Amino acid sequence: MKSYRLFFNPLLILLMFFIALLESRREVLAESNPIVNRILIVGNEVTKEYVIKREIYTRPGGELDEDLLEEDRKRLLNLGIFSDVEFYVESNFDGSADIIVIVNERFRWLPFPAADYDELDGWSFGAGLYHRNFRGRNETLGMAGLFGDAVQYQLIFSNPWISGDHISLQAEFNRLKRYNKYEDFHETYQSYEAELGRKWGEYIWGRIKLGYLRIESEEIGITTTTEFRDDIPLLQTTFIYDSRDLYINPRRGYRFTCVTGQYGFPFKEPDYRAIQLTGSRYFPIPIGRTLAFGFLFGLKSGKTPVYFRYYLGGAETVRGLSENTAKGGRLLVLTSEYRFDIIKTFNLMNRIDFGMGGLLFIESGAVWDGWEVFGNQRFHSSYGAGLRFFVPIVEAVGLDYGWTFDGSSGYEIIFQAKI
């Protein structure tokens, strides 16, 4: 009996060791993230499921990462076809988890009244009709017409992922007829453009555009040819780096673009080139506030026609400054904004998202011809305040009022975010 007790005690100790080892393993498993079992999509009445799932980087078989889920949610919102996106995690008995993605689709067909205003073209009013999720593939098909001081037409089709690995396609037709009061001539502008693009990784896009432009004017000396018409082939390339958290009303991240264009054939008029650089940086600060900084630089070279000049002033450059303050082939604008929420974005009928924000701004810019005169060029500055309304299709509509440091002032109608 005594020998049996001596033999039994080591077995008991060994058994207790294995039990302790299993318990410690169970605690480690409990502290680690569960494994994703499956991803379920709910609410996509029209949108193809693959359009949603290709934007979700969380994968079945991988560990659940809440930060990655939030990035997935924002990536789906940036598609522009959902008024709201929510992710829910449902735990299973085996310790895994199911991800349930609930999407609210925006109205797909959206007829809407349209308006446009700037100092050069004045007021124009009309209507448009856009299908924002054509065939359930995140395609855009639209048309719009505006009538008034300027007459404008537009047809557009785009698919941000038409084939392969983020291959995009966009085709567009535009026509504009107006009186250029700054240069005192009438012009008709018409363009046909097709653009192919590709996305690399999470933040980088590259695009190439082929186009044909026709500019007509009955006044002498406006076009580069004697036929009162310039027929211009266009080759344009675009590089984009965009790490913004949200494309509408971003809180953090960067956006940088470089656009280069060759207008016409080299050594045959018309023949001119353009490069435009833009950059934005966003910093979140407490209580839903944001600091935003941006710049715009443009350069046009070659025998630049009158209709291709930069004008300083107005919504796209220095707000509150008269749009014809300066003109030339070089442009530089620096902008800073302090943004805050007035009405946080909410959903109407689970189809329409609406929000409202305010901002304070200060900015400065200059337009000139030739680097030799840049040092003598005067920068014009302004400051002011504005409102932003976040709505589908146009995304951001605003009204800004600016004062220059020279004492002049003016309002600007904004149809897209400046930075």
Q: How many individual helices?
A: 3
Order of helices and strands: HEHHEEEEEEEEEEEEEEEEEEEE
Arithmetic mean of pLDDT: 87
**What's the overall geometry?**
globular
Question: What is the fold's blueprint, element by element?
Answer:
Elements: H1 2-31, E1 36-42, H2 49-53, H3 66-77, E2 82-91, E3 97-105, E4 109-118, E5 122-134, E6 139-148, E7 151-163, E8 167-180, E9 185-200, E10 204-216, E11 229-242, E12 253-263, E13 272-285, E14 289-302, E15 310-312, E16 326-328, E17 330-348, E18 352-368, E19 380-391, E20 395-404, E21 409-414
Concise structural overview:
The chain is mainly beta. Among the domains are: 16-105, Ubiquitin-like (UB roll) (Roll), CATH 3.10.20.310; 309-419, no CATH class. The protein has helices at 2-31, 49-53, 66-77; strands spanning 36-42, 82-91, 97-105, 109-118, 122-134, 139-148, 151-163, 167-180, 185-200, 204-216, 229-242, 253-263, 272-285, 289-302, 310-312, 326-328, 330-348, 352-368, 380-391, 395-404, 409-414.
